[in-house]
Model the fold of this input.
Amino acid sequence: MTRISSKGFVLASFPYRDRDRMLHILTPDYGLISASARGACSVKSKLRPLSNLFSLCNFDFFYQRERFYVDDGELIEAFLPLSESIEHLTAASHAAEVFKDLTRNSPPDSKYFDLWAYTAYEISQSESPVLISRLSTLRLLAEAGYAPHLDSCCICQRPVRGEADFSFRLSGILCGRRDCSGNASEDSIRLSEGTLALLRHILTANLNRLYRFTVADDVVANASRFLDLYLNEKMEKTYKKLDLLADPFDIDLSGLQRKCD
Done:
């Protein structure tokens, strides 16, 4: 039996067997860990506070028969503001799903943990949590090597000023020259100058300045459409949690639950 200790964020928590819970925990040194918390659904369990969704904890694990188990730990931050509105909870759940999908098969890297730490805090405090959630997935993809080409035309490499078409097929923007703009097709989207400035900031800013910006409503709409399409294209998956905010009566809420029944 092997024992390890690590700080970690609970990105997913769901019932397992009788009174246990299965946790997906993002750690800085070991990546994403799937661990069983035995008896965590019991009111008297010492593991109950450690199994709440989005909690940051110091965990003690033991590894036995190719499985991780939470043995003990200490709650650092519960991030309770994430549950104060359906908008904040949905935004955090969307980002957590993407982080979980990408880090599941990625080598352990503290940059993913650090990015989630800044993202979870910002979503919990922001008046625009859904935008923060969407932008976090772009930075996550960039950290994993899937950054879009936004600095210059992806064909002629000339700098692009003002608005531009983004080609999902080429994963980059096109300038207005005929030889380049002729490559725009049905898989392209027009990005405004403000949207490009926002996206470039997200791709290059230090984490402590990542979510420090002001944008107009038209930029939010344009950027949001691009971010959803780019995420689905790169991850080869359609993410649906944010649909809850458009039609709250048509979505399964089980994945957004924070605590045991």
In short: The chain has a mean pLDDT of 91. The CA atoms of residues 21 and 114 lie 25 Å apart. Residues 217-235 form the longest helix (19 residues).
